[in-house]
Design a protein that fits this description.
heterodimer; A: alpha+beta; Butyryl-Coa Dehydrogenase, subunit A, domain 1; Butyryl-CoA Dehydrogenase, subunit A, domain 2; Butyryl-CoA Dehydrogenase, subunit A, domain 3; 3 domains; three-stranded mixed sheet; 11 helices; 54% helix; B: alpha/beta; Rossmann fold; nine-stranded mixed sheet; two-stranded antiparallel sheet
Amino acid sequence: MDYLLTEEQKMVRDLARKIAEEKIRPVAAKYDQSEEYPWEVIKVIAEAGLFGLFIPEEYGGMANSVMNLCLATEELSRACGGIAVCYAASALGTFPIVLFGNEEQKRKYLPDLASGKKVAAFAVTEPEAGSDASAIKTTAKKEGDYYVLNGLKHFITNGGDAETYVVIAMTDKTKGARGASAFIVEKGMPGFTFGKKEDKFGIRASSTRELIFTDCKVPKANLIVKEGMGFIATMRTFDMSRPGVAAQALGIAQGALDLAVKYAKERQQFGKSISSFQGIQWMIADMATEIEAARGLVYSTARMVDAGISGVSKESAMAKMYASDVAMKVSVDALQIFGGYGYMRDYPIEKYVRDAKITQIYEGTNQIQRNIIALQVIKEAAK
Amino acid sequence: MNIIVCIKQVPETTEVKINPETNTLIREGVKAIINPFDMYAIEESVRLKERFGGKITVITMGPPQADAALKEAISLGADEGILLCDRAFAGSDTWATSYTLSGAIKLIKDFDLIICGKQASDGDTAQVGPGISAHLDIPQVTYVKKIEEVKDKTMRVERMMEEGYEIIETPLPAVLTVVKEINEPRLPSLKGMMRAKSAKITVWTQKELNLDPQNIGLCGSPTQVVKIFTPVQRSGGQIISGEAPEIAEKLASLLKDAIN
């Protein structure tokens, strides 16, 4: 398949692939086991300039586009979905500043995020506010030149390792979703600490941690746009970042298929390679076709976002939902092709199944994505 | 510090196939890469530039498509690439190659250091670096594993030996050939790749270099490849077991038979 990529996009893809093969694949199992943050790889990704892909040039970025971010995330995910999400989650934490930050905030925070000197995180989820983001309990109370934050965020990717956080907190509880605001919070601000680090099923190279705010004083200059913009900022951020999660899922699926095909060619049973059996061949055909369908959806959505087309919620949701469902199915089938060996941790394939699962859950469960899609389709029909 | 790095484009494989009739390498279908040892030379030059500033010029002699190797070097941090490309240079052995490269280096004039990889992965001669130093009549330090100290007119380096290492102080300009222990080459950056894409590679032919025609190309090459072949793989050998005196006796008799 030719994806009609530009020279620049090919460059991004090839560079990310080189990093994935040379610097990520050899250490993927190590970080999966140790659950340590993969700083050595983050440094390589930073030096290569890939953290600049989601930041405009005037703030130190380069080749800034959602399509480039997707290509990079896909390639990194082919080797390790966990390490790739450390990268993609920094994009997620950066988008609210890129999209809604004022000039001063952009100048202050974006250059270090573009160079990869610092990574970012986005903090919306709370123990009782998952899919229902309007149930957020963390509060921000204005006191003089500061907002005082109190509450708990959990399941925050890059939590503890990121330096720059965009945190959603309620400035006016009576207004529901319209009472939510977004703040840039720096690691080390008084009253900002970290809680439990999660022990996860997959994407174990990435850190997932609780953020605890106890009378945390955040300068009012760190409020994004104005009070009440938190929910809109969150939704627009997810519209931008969902193609990235879809690309992560796509990369996991492709990586699993690559391994399964290689194994099927090598594995001999009944005197021949198992890739010569129709049962295996049909599985491979389905997997490859589903991956291409997902890729078409992901790339088209990313291109729409880059073209500045407004209202991409439906397409973003479709790309994220479909690619992650494909990743789950393909990785399970890939493990099946490995047979008994695939179930063993000595082989790399079981990790793909574990890494794939989260893509159906985070940045909006696939059930929430279906809500978004259906609502939009019905709305369009009513026009 | 102005540095010249001499590189070679080689086939990407350690098992190069040979055409037994022409005694040349079969390059068709094999991807061309920068000689792996030259990657350490490029990386070391970039590290020196990061510390001391200056300019890195990368030179290679080869066919027109060797400009890809120079562009890759630029993506890794070099400033400029010069391709020595002329039919008249074809068939050069290590003597003619180092003569031609040194001719280009004389034309560049302003340099403090020349770095080469210790040898090329296809020819394995390790002669071009030392050859350049001889033609330019400047010092050479081969198998450098560490640059210890850089002063205005001198440099102190560690040179790898079979057992241990030597510390050598050399006046500058000098030629260094480097081993893989010296550094870990970086990957290209997106910025570098974009710079490389738009970079213009300077091409010098015999016209620009104006070298003695008797010393270049095939006719300037005192050595000729008479025969080249893939050695037959040795078989596993034989294990003699038993008590020591018994083994010695068996071995002696086997050796005796082999000689006869």
